[in-house]
Design goal:
With 290 residues, this protein is mostly helical. The protein has 15 helices and no strands.
């Protein structure tokens, strides 16, 4: 039980870090191309994790029992970040985060199908309700009266699909590798891939901007490190619904930092998503013999 509670606490902390990181990325898209921001995010994330592990353990636990799975997981995260960060350049943070919350719902389904975790009919119902909320936030024409949604609204949906598989691989690797190994590999393959694009987009940062780049990477390393540790301590089907608390932080960041106020359609969709998430997150009742 203590291990599960620790996993929940780590998940909550990781979500707050992710909102802070997304806020920084949205601010930085005004002056830098998304691939350059992803370079900073992954390269400095890898450096942060490597320095921390070396300082605390005297070694880098690099050897993996499933190196291809580690590579696939890192590349999935890279694709997720590119899609979501591109969306942030065009739509409000709260809207992008809301659409991205198809991911916890999909993770519950994939945990049942791929990891054979037990998911009750009540949780399946919550998944269905939550996905209806995502559809509302996506604003199909039958909701908006013929007005098509912004094309960038679809990017977080792609992020959600890919991130669900990323979470499943995180849970799978928890039984194969030391969590420190998975944390170390999280940004490695992604760093190599985004580095290839830099000659096409590079703008030389100022001294202060270099500091922000390093902070961006450090937040990424810390957040995903906590996520790995969380999934090593608690089931994916339990942790995924807790991600809905990120909606609150995203709305606050949108209001305070960017002055974006979610409209009624977005708020309604968020409410439906949250309702489905609460239904999924409620603990299962166990019958006891009298």
């Amino acid at each position: 039980m203590n291990s599960v509670l620790a996993g929940v606490a780590l998940q909550l902390a990781a979500l707050a870090v992710f909102v802070l990181m997304d806020t920084m990325i949205k601010l930085l898209t005004a002056g830098f191309a998304v691939p350059q921001l992803m370079w900073a995010r992954f390269v400095f994330s890898f450096a942060t994790v490597a320095v921390f592990l070396w300082a605390t353990t005297g070694s880098l636990p690099w050897r993996s029992h499933a190196p291809w799975l580690q590579t696939a997981r890192s590349l999935l995260l890279c694709a997720c970040s590119l899609l979501f960060s591109t969306a942030l350049a065009h739509i409000p943070l709260a809207d992008a985060t809301a659409v991205g919350f198809a991911s916890p719902l999909l993770t519950v389904a994939l945990a049942a199908l791929l990891l054979r975790e037990t998911v009750s009919w009540r949780r399946w119902t919550g998944v269905a309700i939550g996905l209806c909320g995502v559809i509302i936030v996506l604003r199909p024409t039958f909701i908006t009266g013929g007005v098509a949604p912004h094309w960038a609204t679809l990017l977080p949906l792609g992020t959600a699909i890919l991130f669900a598989f990323y979470q499943i691989l995180t849970r799978r690797l928890a039984s194969l590798d030391d969590p420190r190994t998975t944390i170390l590999h999280t940004s490695f393959a992604a760093s190599l891939v985004v580095s290839l694009a830099q000659p096409l987009v590079w703008i030389w940062p100022s001294g202060g901007q270099w500091a922000v780049f390093m902070l961006l990477g450090a937040l990424g390393g810390i957040g995903h490190g906590m996520l790995v540790l969380a999934y090593a301590r608690a089931p994916a089907s339990l942790l995924a619904p807790i991600s809905y608390t990120q909606l609150v932080w995203a709305i606050l960041a949108s209001l305070v930092v960017f002055g974006d106020r979610p409209d009624m359609v977005t708020l309604a969709g968020m409410g439906v998503i949250a309702a489905g998430g609460v239904l999924v997150a409620l603990p299962s009742r166990r019958r006891t013999n009298p």
